[in-house]
Amino acid sequence: MNEYLCTKLIQLDKRWRIGVVSYFNTQPLLLGIEKADFLSKIELVKDYPAKIAQALIDGHIDIGLVPVAITPFLSHPHIVSEYCIGTKTKVASVAIFSKVPMEQIESIYLDYQSRTSVQLARILLKAFWKKDVQFLHAEEGYIQKIAGTTAGVIIGDRALANLTNFEYVYDLGEAWIEHTGLPFVFAAWMSNQPIPDAFKTLFNNANAYGVEHIEEVLNQLPARTHDYNMETYYTKNIEYRLTDTMQQGMELFLEKVKQLAP
Question: Would you say residue 188 has pLDDT above 70?
């Protein structure tokens, strides 16, 4: 580790609270963090996206891998890292699942674990699929209620596990790209305060490690997670680098969120 950065890190007088989603898609980012020399200077808080988002809004964590839809709720939003959870193609783990085709869907459960994905679903249903549906509040166990003309937004590991359980799966990453021509960012590392440059550099390098060592990530996964090919997931479906084009997609999404009815 760079000696200057080590010295600057030691001078930091606080223990950084970092919130992260405990889904399969975050494992490349987590690998480097959990192996980093600065692990003793941080406290990792793991939960699902909506809870990590609220923790950052409420000031219970300093940095979070949070749904980008919460950006307007942060008083001083800062992007902390050059890495994110996004897609430039089919994302596989964020979709509307249904027993009937889109034209027959009348109501949709919105995944309680998500913020960005449910807003994305609302945008696409109105502007891309031209659908007016009833949105239903989802609670734990709602996936079992998806039947008939009632569909549901499912995200994360549960989405991967259900890809073969429904006749119709409408991938929201793929639909966004077809609708806008831009990639999509589901979550980014954000803070609600300035973060020292020395720590941001170390943190960014830690994120890079796992993304550059996918084989190591794959070797640490449970022997059998589900039928989806995780190498494909990490190298084809998920885009981890927050490029300028990815940020353009994020900015367009935030503009469209403003236009949604409350």
Answer: yes
